[in-house]
Amino acid sequence: MQDELLLSPHERESCRFKFYGLAAGQYEHVILPTDPGQPFPIYLRLVLENRNILRVESEIGWSHQGIEKLLEYLEPEAACVEIRRVNFLCPHHCENAYRLASGMPALNPSILAEEAKQYHLFFVRRILGLLQEQSLLRLSYQNLNQFLKKFKSCQRVQNALMGKGSILKAEALSYGLTGPSLEACEASHCGDAWSRVLIKLAEIENPNPNRAPEGLFQVNILGGRVRVRTPSFFHAAALETILVGSRVNDIPIILASLGMVGTEMDR
Question: pTM of the full predicted structure?
């Protein structure tokens, strides 16, 4: 008991998560949301063998914001501002028919590095530049088309994403996945991180002009109650299947390909 009092809060929290029946050569590893490499309010409890993931348990609900209840007491004008806090990567995607910024984290060149913290901001800078042009109504489709062609032709990016975080269509349906994560499980794709990136790039090139693609974001208002349906909440449950068979250093790549945002998980 005295030893537990000497532990830090995060160390005491990690001691609470225990797997039983571990075989020889297997060990438990807990990933805490404490650094830029794992910025999501989600605890991942992993069983590893030589840095290969054998079993996963996820736990969310550590930063609930109460946005849904707050929206019920706001006027529509104020609610349009408040709902932007659901997705801090792209606060205006609720007002646009596409989701450029929050669909692009998977294109970050950090996937080319072995360590998750070695970030390079070239693609992010180009994306923010395109968003600035869009905000000032100066966006040229030619600029976006050149960017997509350059990214697709990068063989290093394709090699880093192919075969990572695969999931079958039946498993995706059982977890309630929608949008690009479900489309990537069709017969023409492999259900991995690279397939999800290709689906998102195709949506950017040919967006639906009338409404946002289904499964990306949905707000239901019925009888004065507000329910925000976000894909990251369902993706968090599917991580127990998607991460199995991958390596620990592939976790940021897989999370980025799913387009997961921490504020969407705990609204």
Answer: 0.53
Going by C-alpha positions, the residue among 183, 167, 189, 178 that lies closest to residue 241 is 167
Q: Spell out the domain ranges in the chain.
A: 67-265
Question: pLDDT tens per residue, the chain (267 residues)?
Answer: 434 444 455 444 444 445 455 666 666 666 655 444 455 667 778 888 887 888 888 777 666 667 777 777 777 667 766 766 666 665 555 444 233 434 445 555 445 454 334 334 455 566 666 666 555 544 455 566 666 666 666 677 777 778 888 888 888 888 888 778 888 888 788 888 888 888 877 776 676 554 544 556 666 566 667 666 677 777 778 888 888 888 888 887 787 777 777 666 766
- Please state, in angstroms and rounded to a whole number, the distance separating the CA atoms of residues 58 and 243: 11
Which CATH superfamily, name and number, covers 67-265?
Cytochrome-c3 Hydrogenase, chain B (1.10.645.10)
156 burial level (CB within 10 Å; 0-12, 13-18, 19+): exposed
